[in-house]
Amino acid sequence: MSLHPEAALLYKENAEVRMKSVEDYQAIVDAERNILYDKLEKIYKLGAKVVLSKLPIGDVATQFFPDRDQFCAGRVQEEDLMRTMTTCGGSIQTSVGSLTDDVLGQCALFEEVQVGGERYNFFPKSKTCTIILREGAEQFMEETERSLHDVIVIIRRAIKNDSVVAGGGAIEMELSRYLRDYSRTIPGKQQPRAVCGMVWM
């Protein structure tokens, strides 16, 4: 499940709260805390095991979810949220007010693995995949990425289209082979003349 918490907050310009005592301040802090914990409890009771957010989720949520055996991450790129939704199903939510089971996605396994100096989150056996490239120099990395992109595009187009026109001089080589084989069937001096006639010379 992915959440966009900014829609749950009410932004107002020049808003202010006037307090006359410490008790008033404490009441406001307690009310804010209760609202936050109420939202976190709704997510927990829904049964989500992985919670992703586009914005920072805050220290309270960072402690709340792991204590209940749930994974949470903030500042997730919108592109990654969309890919996760495409892979696992579910939908992106802007509020926790009316959460139901049908907004949750499903995956067989979720794991966090460290590759080099970075930590990555994986959803094995899903509909999409991520390719991690490692190179010694930046120029080799860019060349590898371009080549890999070309291969993926070629494979995608080959799958989508049944007809393929070979490149790299393949047509010319096939014509040359055909003409060579045909020329061997013509005896003597007629051979060059017949070949020239075939190529409109």
TrEMBL record:
It is found in: Cytoplasm. InterPro entries: Chaperone_TCP-1, Cpn60/GroEL/TCP-1, GroEL-like_apical_dom_sf, GROEL-like_equatorial_sf, TCP-1-like_intermed_sf. Keywords: ATP-binding, Chaperone, Cytoplasm, Nucleotide-binding. GO terms for cellular component: cytoplasm. The keyword Repressor does not apply. One of its GO terms (molecular function) is ATP binding. The keyword Chaperone applies. Belongs to the TCP-1 chaperonin family. This is CCT-eta. It comes from Acipenser ruthenus. The lineage of its organism: Eukaryota, Metazoa, Chordata, Craniata, Vertebrata.
